[in-house]
Amino acid sequence: MLVVVANKLPPAVRGRMKLWFVEPRANIFVSGIKDSVAATVIEYLYKHCPEESGIVMFQSISKPPGYTIRSIGATDKQMTEISGLQLVVEKLVGAEKQDIVFS
After folding, report:
1. Per-position DSSP letters for 71-94, written without gaps between them
2. Is a pLDDT exceeding 90 seen at residue 90?
3. How much is the pTM?
4. β-pairing, 101-102 with 85-90?
5. Cα Rg for the chain, rounded, in angstroms?
């Protein structure tokens, strides 16, 4: 499975993404494509998307932790890695600094 979340995509890339993905919400693409096709799609995105696209890609893999996260450009969410585990940093609205949540 591959999930792609983007701030914005070039129109040509967005049209191409609709060949492989469903778009349940604007700029969020979900697909159950096979690993080899996912690698092709990821390579395509790296080649055709500028830094301003702000893309985060979540790809399922067969070894722990079961997923990998890649990004292109600046994203809305901060990424971190703790003990080799890739995580997305979330802040709760109105929360104190110590209430940072990792998802």
Report:
1. EES--SSEEEEETTEEEEEE--TT
2. no
3. 0.79
4. antiparallel
5. 14
Q: How far apart are CA 43 and CA 55, in angstroms?
A: 13
Distance in angstroms (rounded) separating the CA atoms of residues 36 and 87: 24
pLDDT of residue 21: 94
Q: What token pair was written down for 51?
A: 């830094």
**Is 22 buried (19+), middle (13-18) or exposed (0-12) by CB count in 10 A?**
exposed
**How far is 55 from 35, CA to CA, in rounded Å?**
19
Q: What's the whole-number mean pLDDT along residues 83-98?
A: 74
Evaluated on CA atoms 11, 36, 80, 64, the torsion sign reads positive
**Whole-angstrom Cα distance, residue 74 to residue 45?**
15
Structure tokens belonging to residue 30: 């979900």
Alpha-carbon distances, residue 82 vs 36, 59, 79, 89, 91 (angstroms): 28, 18, 10, 11, 17
27-31, 54-58, 63-67, 77-81: range with lowest mean pLDDT:
77-81
